[in-house]
Amino acid sequence: MTAITDPVGTASADEAADKAPVADPIVAEVDPSRHLILVDGSGYIFRAFHALPPMTNPAGVPVNAVFGFTQMLANFLSKHAGSHIAVVFDASRSTFRNELYPAYKAQRPEAPPELAPQFGLIREATDAFCVARVELDGFEADDLIATYATAFAKEGGQVTIVSSDKDMMQLVGGGIRMLDPIKQKPIHAAEVVEKFGVMPEKVVEVQALAGDSTDNIPGVPGIGIKTAAQLIETYGDVETLLSRLSEIKQPKRRQALEENAEKARISRKLVELDRNAPLPLPMEGLATRAPEPGKLMAFLKLQGFRSVQHRLGLDASGEVPVSRPAGPAPAPVALTLPAEGAPFGPYETITTIDALHAFAEAARTAGVMALDTETTGLDALNASLVGVCLAVAPGRAAYLPLRHEGTDMLSPAPEQLPFDAAMDVLRPLLADPSVLKVLHNAKYDLEVLNREANGGLEVSPVDDTMMISYSLDAGRHGHGMDELARRHLSHQPITYDEVTGTGRGRKPFAQVPLDEATRYAAEDADVTLRLWHALRPKLREEKALALYEEVERRMITVLRDMEMAGVKVDGPALKQAGAEFTERMAALEAEIHEIAGRPFAVGSPKQLGEILFGEMGLSGGRKGKSGAYSTDAATLEELAASTGHPLPRKVLDWRQLSKLNSTYVEGLQAQLAADGRVHTDFSMAITSTGRLSSTEPNLQNIPIRSQEGARIRRAFVAEPGHLLLAADYSQIELRLLAHVAEVPSLREAFATGQDIHSRTASDIYGIPPDKVDREARRRAKTINFGIIYGMSAFGLAGRLGIGAGEARGIIDAYFAQYPGIRDAMERFKEDARTNGYVLTPFGRKLWIPEIGARDQGRRGNAERAAINAPFQGGAAEIIKRAMVRLPKALREARLRARMLLQVHDELLFEVPEDEVEATKPVVQAVMEGVATLRVPLAVEIGTGHSWAEAH
């Protein structure tokens, strides 16, 4: 396994560094013979733990974090030596800051049980390399770094702090510089200004106002980094600002500062690093020492780190020490990404078993490899494997052809390995827990590989660059490999069309010559690995690591299993539904023609527009660029509500039947597999809110409460001896609304099990709960759900069939009764305008790209999206959290239920009849227990032989 510089990477920059030594951009011209390097060890521990797959040493102790840390330190020391160096650790969770503010970092969970035993081994690793190890009870590593850096700089030395922790940016200047080991970027004053909007000496003032939710530093609610920087630029520091609050023109901002002045003062004390902490070791104790080969060898052998031993050139007797650069002026801190700048190709074509074994061994040495498949099509459950792409370092990738054919009828198939022989080599590698497999859109490749090679290829552990990107930037941009390569690597990959052609001239990939196939396919693996190096470190930096690790990453295999299982469809019942729909469409068409006064093509928007706005003279017609009237669903809904004319509603009914017939009756019949089941494809990274989308076929748009939708759902059935179990979250988005907004009456209603719509009607109309009639409840229900989507008075008027003035009155009464909801909505819009994104209740960033659009219509749509995204995104995350926990919970309960579908807030299972009653409480307990809100989650469960019966 090649050495890593930051544990989120797994290969080194040796070749590039040897060819082109880099001048140190960090070191100040003070005394080049005195250079102190302070490594933030605590930060590396957690990056290593989350970045590397689980592994154990010969004694069975978890060591993935130890291994990553050891790799980093080995590579670091082989590249660089200052005159002084130390790795600084946190000694304990409790420090003087907890005495000052007990809530400081109180929300942080305990270390995972598999990480806890690694802390001591990491300290042993530091000792084995003869590097000074610094820690002190009652003080954070940041304080010790601040104290050593300040003292060393005062003596005329230069200091490099190896850390990406923004809290240490306050130290920059006066001979002290930082190096971000994730971005490989030196941090000077200019970078601090870019991050905080102020010079380093003012960073603590900005942090005091903005606070930090990660560390539970309160700050002043409503003031972010940008606003804080503006205030500090104007007033200089927190105390001056607080003494001149009367000058603040914005009432809300002034009030927030007045009410939270003490929080700002406490926050300043919490964020300011202590530069006068006791020094656990004297400065001379940090002097660089060469490692003792025997001591280092003993540690590596004890942990089973043979690849590190090999990388360092240590033979069995431990004779060869780690090399260090010579000379009085140390080299720069070379924490560059592996083989940065390596060209994209040429790549290797693997056609012999020896070459495949060599590449497999290189993957085991690297500890991480990128993997991709080339297939005969895009349907993972029907496509055949043509070849496999592998990459073990940027620029080092290969293509393994498996089922290539001749380029035409007369040419023979090219030389390639027998399929089974190749599988015998790949199978143990892909299942090796010590080698992380990185894929892009992993679900597709896992399904293909699972069906192949005599029982399938199991691939584990897995990282997915598409889902890493999605966890970071949902809604911000697309997450296809080519787009990400352009965005993050400034590289345009070879396109599929370039190697296969287009149109009628397109040839199957299996007929692409091997040199061209290799150039295209191996590049995919190379790009995937480079994207992993670029994006994986950002997860922690952008506070998206837990979302990815606990939800999105685990969803990959959950959805793979659901798609492969599929759901059974009763073909004859589906045909009968189609016959009924066709009959009802014909009857509706006759009614439409009678109302219109003449026959016309109901499915023609142009002819319909001429009837409605030309011949009938209905108002509200709008012509598009083509000159034809618009007759989309929104226009017809508006016409039906404003004019009361029957024709628009009849056409809408006809269109729904037509869509159901074509999409579900005809569509499902076409997509029915040989096993009698349909296997939908769940797209994981399409929506801006985190929701899954379903395609081929789309099973998420079947109307829930209509008679027609129920007719379709009756065709989805259980296998003999089984029942379908539907588990549906009840009013989940409204519960999230009650959670995030200060609305005591709504929280009370949910907590006591009241009908939320009747309670809302009672509150806004001022009538006793037992006097709420059906119409009042209907209106309350419409506004309850509409408010989550930012519905306007005009929209509500259309939904309720009332005038805009009356609708505005209802909305005003709603917000007067529930001011906390209006405050929450305004806060979401302000967050979007300020940051470009909103957060779900669980901290996921949902980007709102057009929030600053000049066009009022686009900006209005973005504001409505900002209001809705936290609720829809929060609901999506809750059901995903349930989905990743349910398979394990069912296994532990020894139940055979299979999860088949996820449709918005509902999960559908196929359950053996004799296990239904035992399965219900397990499903309900998991789904209701995945999140703790200010109101309870509730799940409704139904069962039946068909989906309609269970719903």
Automatic annotation (TrEMBL):
Entry function:
In addition to polymerase activity, this DNA polymerase exhibits 3'-5' and 5'-3' exonuclease activity.
**Gene (UniProt):** polA
Per the similarity annotation, which family is this? Belongs to the DNA polymerase type-A family.
The identity of this protein, by name, is DNA polymerase I
- What keywords is this UniProt entry annotated with? DNA damage, DNA repair, DNA replication, DNA-binding, DNA-directed DNA polymerase, Exonuclease, Hydrolase, Nuclease, Nucleotidyltransferase, Transferase
GO terms for MF:
3'-5' exonuclease activity; 5'-3' exonuclease activity; DNA binding; DNA-directed DNA polymerase activity
Show where the DNA-directed DNA polymerase family A palm domain sits: 709-915
CDD domains with a match to the protein in the record: DNA_pol_A_pol_I_C, DNA_polA_I_Ecoli_like_exo, H3TH_53EXO, PIN_53EXO
Q: What is its EC number?
A: 2.7.7.7
Q: Which residues form the 5'-3' exonuclease domain?
A: 34-289
**Listed Pfam families:** 5_3_exonuc, 5_3_exonuc_N, DNA_pol_A, DNA_pol_A_exo1
Q: How does it assemble?
A: Single-chain monomer with multiple functions.
Which SUPFAM superfamilies does the entry link to?
Answer: 5' to 3' exonuclease, C-terminal subdomain, DNA/RNA polymerases, PIN domain-like, Ribonuclease H-like
Species annotation = Muricoccus nepalensis
